[in-house]
Structures are given as C-alpha cells and as structure tokens.
Design brief:
single chain; 442 residues; alpha/beta; Rossmann fold; Arc Repressor Mutant, subunit A; 2 domains; 3-stranded antiparallel β-sheet; elongated; binds adenosine-5'-triphosphate; binds magnesium ion
C-alpha cells in the first residue's frame, strides 16, 4: 500500500487520507497551506486525482513537478467560467486528471455560483464512477460556516461527511476553527491542528483532542510553525510536517510548468465540448517549453528539412548497404521501441518524457518505464536525459547520420547526407513505426 511522506518522522498510509474528511486548522502563518500542499504533493506523486480550490492563487507551484490542469487564473490552461465548471469537474474525474481551480480572480458571488456547479457535478459523476478522488478547499469557514445554511455549504458538507461511499474525500483548511461547521470537524477522520491562540478556537481544539484541558492548552501553545497535533485513528500526537518541495505561490515564469500531452488533450476536448475557440496559453509559456533545456546537437548546416532529398538510387553501393544494416537493426527492435523512435524522429529535436510519449502513442506509461528504449540510445538514434521531471527522450538522427556516414562525407557532399537522412526518416518514421496495438506483457 502506498505511504504518504508528510514529515521527517511522519508517514501515513494513503488509506488514512483517501475518502476521509481531512481538517487542517490553525492561525495565520502556522503552516496550514504548507501542510495541505505537502498532502497534495504526496497524493499527486502517486497520481491520485484531485481538485484544489485555490482561493489565493497559491497552489500553481504544484505544476513545477506534477501534471495538473489549471482552470482560471494567470497562466491557466483553460479559462474558468460558470458555463465550463461542471464539464471540467466531469473530465477531471473521468480522465483522472488533477485540477487546480484558480478562483482567486473571482468576486465572492461568482465564486460561490461556480463552486456550486463544479462540486455538484463532481458529486453526481462520482455517484456512477465511485473512483477515489480528493477535493482540497482553503478558507473553508467561508463555504461551510457554523450555523448558516447555503446550497454551497450543503454540497461541501455532503462531500466531506458522506463522500466516502462515492470515493470522495475532502481536505478542508481554515484559520477560523470556531467558525467552521462543527459537525464536519467532529466527524473529520484526520486532523492537523496547528497553533491557535484565540479562546474560541482553543475550545474547539479541546473538544477535538481527547487530552485533559491543561495538557491540550500547553501542547497547542508549544507548537512552532509547521508543527501540529495530528489526530489519526482517533489518536493525537505532536508531529512536524516537512516543507513543500514545490514552489508556494502563483504563476511565475521562473519555472517551467509540467504540461503534458494529457493536459493538452483534455484542454482540446474541453474547448470542443464547449464549442469555443481554442484557449491560447499565456504568452511566454510554450506548449513544449522543456525542449529549450537541451543543448541542440551540433547540426551540419546543410542538413535541414525541406530540401529535395534526391533519389536513393544515386547513393553509392556501400552507403546503401550501411543504410540497410541500420534499418535491419531497427526492424529487430520491439514494436514499442519502433513506435517511440518513429514518433521522436518525426518531432526531432523535441524532447518528451515517458508520460508524454505514452499519451502521444496511446499506450501505458508503465509499458515505456518497463521497456525503456535503451538499445536505441546505445545505437545513437535516441538521446536520453535525466531531469528533475524524470527521463526525457529525443531523436538524434541528424547527428547519427553525420557521425555514421562521416567516412563518405566528402564523396557524398551535403546533398548526399541529406538523402540519407530523408531515407532514414521515411523508414523509421513510417514503415517501421506501426500506428497502434502495442502488445505489452509486463
Ligand atoms: N512545515 C514547515 N516547515 C518549514 N517552514 C514552514 C512549514 N510550514 C510553513 N512554513 C513556513 O511558514 C510560512 C507560513 O506558512 P503557511 O503559508 O503554510 O501558513 P498558513 O497557516 O497557511 O498561513 P495563512 O493563514 O496566512 O494562509 C511559510 O513561509 C512557510 O514556508
Ligand atoms: Mg495559507
């Protein structure tokens, strides 16, 4: 079973969190958002689908490491409007795609109406799917206030209290413990109680923590930033939460967001299903920004695309023989490797992660991870690079041709080398790269 690493000495089984109501409480600056962020990082690292309702635009940094669709806000993948909210929720659940719902730019009324639509849609779809899913909400005293009743409160409380049967769980965060609906807090399965100082908040803690009053007061008063009383399985203990690995804050051009093919596909489907024009990513944010990270191979100037490749028959016999040998070697590779090579050759010099390749080739990421294209890397046809976001691959056919056919370079000239390159592109990217049906036996 997966374990969530929440602190230097704090690991929780994922089942303690999933389908639960998780409450994160404490005064301003006590470390609540960090704690919620750490739980989200851990869930995202096991590819757990979720929605973060981002009130202050402070969760965008999760994209530094994880695949998420950002709806709304500066730097978002799709615009966030009331008309689209329900559909985004539906796609997030169905496609298991984590979503940041950036409502930071909305007025209170707009925000309430939109969240009501979004969460109602989640609740309905979860009723038939019953797949595990979490929803994180900051400032939850505004959505589930003690005492008053609103349609939004009704749906948030329903998810928090009765979501489990549908696979739904909630992470609710608030700095006003006494203002959050008590029924929700007392039934929370997991509580992270950071420091509080106000009497009213302390009284709530005294109800939640099964210690003597003086003990509770002393323990809570001694909590530093990032420390809390954790109540798990009804047992309280003092713990320290680790710091978030990802950037804590809104959109910033200082890092390159993870934006995989899956996000792009869902975005397209959203755009199509809503009958709208494609939503352009904000300027400065390219769709495949990471290719900039790689040093381009030294390219021999004349080897560019688009030149007339000439006729293969013009190539000298020994060159044709060498070409055939290369093709035969590739023919002996697995279908999956040939498909990867074909795709990467057609996109040279762009680099793709295993996850992106899986999305483009319509196969399981596990298939690629289980069978990395090492033989093709060793042959020199692909280049692999380990980055903080995992292994990336790109084709290196140009450099390969330049090096492998260097002995013939003088005889062939640049047009001859170009012919070789075109020949290999045709073979590797076409005939040898079957479209689908990758048989994968783990
Ligand atoms: N576990 C931790 N370890 C180290 N630093 C932490 C930890 N938790 C929080 N901090 C630091 O303390 C500061 C406040 O944390 P955070 O923003 O999480 O507080 P908060 O309770 O959400 O505050 P607010 O109510 O204002 O939203 C941040 O600068 C954060 O980096
Ligand atoms: Mg906060």
């Amino acid at each position: 079973m997966s374990v969530l690493h929440l602190g230097p000495e704090l690991e929780l089984p994922v089942d303690d969190v999933v389908g639960q109501c998780v409450a994160v409480l404490g005064i301003r600056g006590s470390g609540k958002s960090n704690t919620a962020g750490v739980i989200l990082e851990e869930l995202l690292s096991i590819r757990f689908p979720l929605t973060v309702v981002d009130i202050d635009g402070e969760y965008f940094g999760l994209r530094e490491k994880y695949e998420l669709l950002v709806a709304g806000g500066e730097g978002g993948d799709v615009a966030l409007e009331r008309a689209t909210a329900g559909e985004i929720a539906r796609l997030s659940l169905k496609e298991s795609l984590p979503v940041i719902l950036d409502v930071s730019g909305l007025l209170t009324d707009e925000r309430e109406a939109l969240l009501l639509d979004y969460l109602t849609s989640l609740w309905t779809v979860a009723g038939t799917l019953r797949a595990p899913y979490m929803i994180a909400i900051e400032e939850c005293h505004e959505f589930i206030p003690q005492g008053t009743r609103t349609p939004l409160k009704e749906v948030v409380a329903r998810i928090a209290l009765r979501g489990r049967k549908r696979g739904l769980g909630a992470i609710i965060v608030s700095q006003r413990s006494a203002k959050v609906e008590k029924d929700v807090l007392t039934q929370a399965g997991l509580l992270f109680l950071h420091r509080v100082v106000h009497e009213a908040d302390m009284r709530v803690y005294e109800e939640l923590i099964p210690w003597r009053r003086v003990e509770t007061k002393e323990a809570v008063a001694s909590l530093g930033v990032g420390e809390c009383i954790l109540i798990s399985q009804s047992t309280p203990r003092k713990v320290r939460i680790r710091e978030r690995h990802t950037f804590h804050g809104g959109y910033t051009p200082t890092f390159v967001p993870v934006q995989s093919a899956k996000v792009l596909q869902v975005r397209e489907r959203l755009v199509q299903s809503l009958g709208k024009e494609s939503y352009d990513p904000p300027s400065g944010q390219e769709e495949f920004p990471w290719e900039e990270e790689f040093d381009q191979p030294p390219v021999m100037a004349p080897l560019s695309r688009g030149e007339d490749p000439g006729n293969d028959e013009d190539l000298p016999g020994p060159v044709m023989k060498k070409l055939e040998r290369i093709v035969r070697r590739v023919e002996r590779s697995s279908v999956l490797h040939r498909r990867m090579l074909g795709f990467l050759v057609s996109r040279e010099p762009r680099a793709y992660s295993a996850r992106d390749l899986a999305a483009w080739l319509d196969c399981a990421e596990a298939a690629i991870l289980a069978e990395p294209p090492t033989p093709l890397v060793e042959l020199g046809l692909l280049f692999q690079e380990r980055t903080s976001r995992g292994m990336f691959y790109r084709a290196t056919l140009r450099t390969y041709v330049e090096e492998a056919f260097a002995p013939f370079a003088q005889e062939l000239g640049s047009s001859g080398l170009h012919q070789i390159l075109s020949h290999l592109r045709r073979e590797l990217g076409g005939r040898l790269a079957p479209e689908r049906n990758v048989a994968y036996t783990p």
